[in-house]
């Protein structure tokens, strides 16, 4: 069929920055409606919305060079438009930073995924975008049951990783770590989940903190240019994603998942900052208790537990930002349908 909404596709239209994106709507034969809200913003409303309907945000491209999740969303939305995927849940597809993606860049002025708290900062391209994204999320989630709100913010890692796919569950006071959410990860063969121990300023944290959404940052493979991602390695996750939005997850089997707790967050606090390990160290590389990880000015940075693993190490971040997470494996259980650990 001829797609009346896009000249090329959801993704590639968003990247043509000198061409305006006009709002548009298409009703499918199933009765579902596809609404183009703006550049990189498409809402899919199922034929029937009830009190049980999930309201799911699927976002990608917070970092412009993390392209595999963008390609996944592009493929899924194309199949929705050609009616080979019958959506049963209310969905919002988001490509968050098309300008950075078009420039093959992680960001323009600063890291967008550090701008979703209330801290006042100088204006920048990313600050403007964060305000728009927060408004879009509020509009999507308002007037729907808190228990039905989901947000999967999808990324790709800068470096190699012992776990090819993993997720980070933000720390908030609301019950946002449901058995159903963890089951989705297992059905998508996501290899590990990190349970954060402190508030953050990420996009997924924003949705969990302010709207009680079942929200995750999901890391899918490694950064690669558009067209060079090995999406075959993400087949299990793609099937689970399709199952989530079509309410057809029951046929997928849960796979084992490793669970980690965050033991410490290392922030860069001075110009004289560096790690002792190699720049290309893999995510989830482990260290022993007392091993020196690096330095921050005159302060030495130590591993605080045996088999403490490093994730997201980046000694080039701005002063005051997270330079690494340190995590340890942990045994978990469910209490009142929420995953917890001792």
From TrEMBL:
Domain Succinylglutamate desuccinylase/Aspartoacylase catalytic: start-end pairs: 53-241
List of residues binding Zn(2+): 63, 66, 155
MF (Gene Ontology): hydrolase activity, acting on ester bonds; succinylglutamate desuccinylase activity; zinc ion binding
SUPFAM superfamilies xrefs: Zn-dependent exopeptidases (SSF53187)
Recorded catalytic activity of this chain's protein: N-succinyl-L-glutamate + H2O = L-glutamate + succinate
GO BP annotation list: L-arginine catabolic process to L-glutamate; L-arginine catabolic process to succinate
Chain's role: Transforms N(2)-succinylglutamate into succinate and glutamate.
PANTHER family: ASPARTOACYLASE, SUCCINYLGLUTAMATE DESUCCINYLASE
Protein name in the entry: Succinylglutamate desuccinylase
Highest classification ranks of the organism: Bacteria, Pseudomonadati, Pseudomonadota, Gammaproteobacteria, Vibrionales
Gene field: astE
């Amino acid at each position: 069929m001829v797609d009346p909404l896009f000249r090329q596709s959801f993704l590639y239209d968003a990247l043509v920055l000198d061409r305006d994106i006009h709002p548009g709507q298409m009703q499918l034969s199933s009765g579902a409606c596809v609404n183009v809200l703006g550049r990189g913003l498409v809402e899919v409303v199922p034929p029937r919305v009830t009190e049980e309907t999930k309201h799911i945000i699927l976002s990608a491209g917070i970092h412009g060079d993390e392209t595999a999740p963008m390609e996944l969303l592009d493929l899924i939305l194309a199949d929705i438009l050609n009616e080979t995927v019958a959506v049963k849940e209310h969905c919002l597809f988001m490509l968050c930073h098309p300008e950075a993606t078009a420039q093959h860049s992680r960001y323009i002025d600063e890291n967008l995924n550090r701008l979703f708290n209330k801290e006042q900062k100088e204006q920048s391209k990313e600050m403007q975008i964060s305000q728009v994204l927060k408004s879009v999320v509020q509009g999507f989630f308002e007037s729907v049951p808190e228990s039905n709100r989901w947000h999967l913010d999808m990324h790709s890692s800068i470096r190699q990783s012992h776990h090819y796919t993993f997720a980070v569950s933000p720390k908030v006071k609301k019950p946002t770590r449901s058995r159903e959410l963890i089951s989705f990860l297992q059905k998508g063969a996501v290899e590990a989940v990190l349970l954060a121990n402190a508030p953050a300023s990420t996009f997924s944290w924003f949705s969990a903190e302010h709207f009680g959404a079942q929200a995750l940052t999901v890391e899918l493979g490694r950064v690669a240019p558009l067209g060079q991602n090995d999406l075959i390695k993400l087949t299990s996750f793609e099937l689970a994603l399709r199952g989530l939005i079509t309410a057809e997850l029951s046929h997928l089997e849960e796979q084992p998942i490793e669970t980690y707790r965050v033991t410490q967050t290392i922030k860069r606090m001075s110009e004289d900052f560096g790690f002792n390990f190699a720049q290309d160290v893999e995510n989830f590389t482990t260290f022993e208790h007392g091993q020196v990880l690096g330095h921050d000015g005159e302060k030495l940075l130590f591993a605080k537990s045996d088999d403490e693993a490093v994730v997201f190490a980046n000694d080039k971040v701005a002063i005051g930002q997270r330079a690494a997470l340190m995590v340890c494996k942990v045994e978990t259980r469910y209490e009142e349908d929420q995953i917890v650990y001792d």
